[in-house]
Every structure is written in C-alpha cells, then in structure tokens.
Specification:
Shape: elongated
Distance between the termini: 39 Å
Largest sheet: none
Order of helices and strands: HHHHHHH
C-alpha cells in the first residue's frame, strides 16, 4: 500500500526540520569567538590553549549530536512512511515538545526577555527557528489528516500478528 501524499510530505518536512536544526547548530558553532568568551566567562583562569581545547571539544560534540539527530529523524520519518504507528507517535511527541518550546522561545525573543537576560539574539537563528516551527506544525498536521489516519489503520492490519491456528495448541 502506498502512503498518501500527506504522509510523504510529512516525512520530508521532518527531515527538513532536522536539517534546519543542524544549520542553526552550525551558525552557533561558526561564532568561535563567542564560544571562547563563554568558556572564559565560566572559567576565567584557563590558559588560552585549554580554552581552545574546550571549544574544539564543544564543536566536535555538537557536530556529532547534530548528525545523530538528523540520522534519527531520517530513520523514524522513513518508518512513519512505512506505516509504523510508533514512529508517528514518536514524531508527534517530539514535534509537540519542540513546537511548544520553540513557541516559548519566540515569545521570549518578541517580548525582549532574552535581551534583558543578557542573551544575544542572532536574527538568522530566529528566522531559522521560526521557519522550523512552521515546518514542524505542518508536518504534525499532515501526519494526522484523515487520509493519513486511514493509511495508518490499513497498515496496522499488515503488522498485526495472525491469530493462532486451532491445531497449533492441541489439548
């Protein structure tokens, strides 16, 4: 059974959302001086060589996590397109959490709360976050459209275990 267009669109939107998140991570990591400043503000007595080592470690760890998240989203989105209900539920769970947290972050930026707390607000990061929120909301909606629900119900029957045969367990 081929998935409806809404389910296929949802898959690509989830993958796009993960890629947008990776791009946001890259923007943060591209500000090497900002990373150095963060490390020295936490531990001002560190020599510059150790600060550089900590920054390099942060960058490597962040890249590995970003690659892992993109890979996980691709895997789960492909399972969702294959009709696996658990994948749709997992994407819904994380999508709702990220939309709520992202929405709260946008409210904090719009109210000026982030600026009053001394946090720098990069317009490119805010724009990518806003686009990511829209993409995730559309992906969530597409997964739960009536055509998607019909598809998941139909594929659930494929994955269900057959009833035991009568002669399988003799008395």
């Amino acid at each position: 059974m081929t998935p409806p267009r809404a389910v296929d669109v949802a898959r690509w939107l989830w993958i796009a959302s993960a890629l947008l998140s990776a791009v946001r991570t890259y923007l943060v990591l591209a500000d090497r001086q900002g990373l150095r400043d963060q490390v020295t503000s936490v531990e001002p007595t560190l020599p510059m060589q150790q600060v550089e080592a900590v920054v390099n470690g942060e960058i490597i760890l962040a890249v590995l996590i970003a690659v892992g998240i993109v890979g996980l989203y691709v895997l789960v989105a492909n399972k969702m397109v294959a009709g696996r209900a658990w994948a749709r539920v997992l994407l819904t769970f994380f999508g709702v959490i990220f939309v709520l947290l992202g929405g709260l972050g946008m409210v904090g930026v719009a109210d000026g709360l982030a600026a009053t707390q001394g946090l720098s607000v990069d317009p490119a990061e805010v724009a990518l976050s806003a686009v990511g929120l829209v993409v995730e909301v559309i992906a969530l909606a597409a997964m739960w459209l009536p055509s998607s629900n019909t598809y998941f119900r139909a594929t659930a029957a494929q994955f269900a275990l057959p009833p035991p045969r009568q002669d399988q367990f003799p008395r």
